[in-house]
Amino acid sequence: MKQFKTLIINEWNTHRRTLLAPMWMLAGIYGITLLGIVIGYIKGGANASINLPPTPWIDTFLYEGTIIFASILGIVSIWAAIIAVDGMINGAFKRKCEILHHSQPVSLPKIMAAKFVLLALGSMLLYMLLSLFNTLVVGIFMYFWSSAHLYYAIMAWLQTGMGVFLSLLFVSSFFWLCASIFKRKSFFLGLLSILGLEITITILKQTAHLKIPSLVGYLLKLINIRPAISMAPFIKPTLNDTVSMYWQGFYSWDTVVKLVCTIVFLMAGYWIYSRRELT
Question: Which residues fall within 8 angstroms of residue 224, CB to CB, at 6 or more apart?
Fold first, then answer.
C-alpha cells in the first residue's frame, strides 16, 4: 500500500498542472466576477441592486443553472484527463527513459493502476470538490436573495457529478487505449481512427445498403454528461418530476455500455502497453 501511494504521489507531482486546470478556470471566473462586483459597487454605490428571475421560477433557474455550470466544469475536467493520459502512458517514451522506469522493483500492474486511479478518481475528486464549492456559494446566495431551495442545487450537483463520472471513465479509458497503441500524437490519431471507421461505415451503408447507425453519433450520445430523459408520462411535469426522471435516466443501457467499454479499454490498453518495445 505504501508503494502504491508513492506511485500515485509521483504521478500527481508530474501531472498536477494539467489536472488542476478546472481549479484555475474556476478561480479565474470567481476573480473576474468579484472584480465586476467591486467595479459595479464603486460606480453604483451602496444602492446597487441585483435583479433575479421571478420567484415561481427561481428553483428551476437554480437547478438548471447549477447543471449547466457543473457540466462546463466537468467538460474541462474530462479535457484535462485526456491531455494527462498521454503524458502518463507515453511520458517515459518521449523522455527516452522507459527502460529505467520499468527496471524499478515495482510490478507493471501496480504502476498502471496508480496511473488510472489518479487519472479517473483523482480527477473526479477534484471536480466534485470544486463543483460543490461553487454549488454552495451560488445556492446560499440564491437562498438569501430569493428564498430558493438549496435542495435543488445539491440534487443538480449530485446528478451532474454522476454524469461526469461515467463520461470521464469512458473517455479517459478510450484515450488510455489510444495512448497505449500510439506512442506519439495519440489524441489526434485516436480521433482519426474514429473518423476512419465512420467513413467506412458510411461507405458500407451506401454501397451495401446496410442499416448501420452512425458511430460518431453514438459516441457523442455516450459522452453526453446529461442522460436522455422523457417527460411524456407527465401532463404538467414539476421540478420534482424532472429531478426524479433525471435519476432514472442513469438506469439505461448507455450506462452499461459506458462501464463495459471502460473495462474493455483498460484491459486492452494494459495488454498492448505491456507488450510494447521499450526504448
Answer: 163, 167
Number of domains in the chain: 1
Residue bearing cell 432514472:
248
124 φ, ψ to 5°?
-70, -40
174 within domain boundaries: yes
Q: Tell me the C-alpha distance between 79 and 16, whole Å.
A: 14
Question: pLDDT digits over 41-69, tens only?
Answer: 787 655 555 555 556 688 888 999 999 99
197 Cβ contact partners less than 8 Å away, ≥ 6 residues apart: 215
Range of 227's domain? 2-19+55-274
Residue 37 binned pLDDT confidence (cut-offs 50, 70, 90): confident
* b (16+ CB within 10 A) / e for 143-164: eeebebbbebbbbbbbbbbbbb
Q: Measuring CA to CA, which residue among 106, 107, 98 is closest to residue 277?
A: 98
